[in-house]
Design brief:
Layout (H helix, E strand, L loop, with lengths): L1 E8 L5 H8 L4 E11 L8 E6 L2 E8 L2 E2 L2 E12 L3 H10 L3 E15 L2 E8 L3 E10 L5 H17 L11 H6 L11
Antiparallel strand pairs: 1-6, 1-9, 2-3, 2-7, 3-4, 4-6, 5-6, 7-8, 8-9
Length: 183
């Protein structure tokens, strides 16, 4: 799938506003990610995610630009009980553990968008908005998704709080997220 997304600094107090906007209560999210890389490389290559008791393995081709991320993700879903086997498999292929990311908060579906309001490690709270498209999505589909995402950020007055630094960089460099004042 192609993932088009942006994140912005946002306080957890926005939950009720997002509930109202999305027309439903946000479901709880608890994602624990373990990232792997090839020794000596400074980019993640593989992710093992435990997501509310289920396991996802992900390889990602990352592409960031002015309008946010536009990534290709390749995923495989396994039983969470196979976590140790998956980690051993990646290590056997020559990958090493790189860093851990823990995201906890709430999730909504709004039209074709997925919205999350999350506390991430100790770097702060963020609103993530993503659209999932087919691998072969054309530029018009990508631009529409980017516009839809910006419309939601504008609705919550978060366009000035967009964060383009990756979670990886913030976590590894100990960068504290800038707080966002809820209105």
């Amino acid at each position: 799938m192609r993932e088009v997304e942006l994140k912005a600094h946002a306080g957890m107090a926005l939950k009720e506003s997002i509930d109202s906007f999305a027309g439903c209560m946000g479901s709880e999210v608890d994602k624990l990610d373990l990232y792997f890389r090839k020794p000596g490389e400074n980019v993640q290559a593989l992710r093992v995610r435990i997501n509310n008791g289920k396991m996802e393995l992900t390889a990602k081709e990352q592409h960031s630009g002015e309008k946010g991320e536009n990534n290709l993700e390749y995923e495989l879903f396994l039983s969470a009980s196979q976590r140790d086997d998956a980690i051993a498999f990646f290590k056997c292929l020559g990958f090493e553990e790189y860093f851990i990311k823990h995201k906890k908060g709430y999730s909504w579906h709004y039209g074709d968008l997925h919205i999350e309001l999350l506390d991430v490690n100790d770097i702060g709270s963020f609103m993530e908005i993503e659209a999932l498209l087919d691998y072969d999505a054309d530029e018009m589909e990508i631009e529409k998704a980017q516009q839809d995402i910006m419309d939601v950020l504008r609705h919550f007055n978060l366009e000035s709080a967009i964060e383009r630094t990756s979670y990886r960089e913030m976590i590894l460099n100990g960068i504290q997220g800038k707080p966002h004042t809820d209105k």
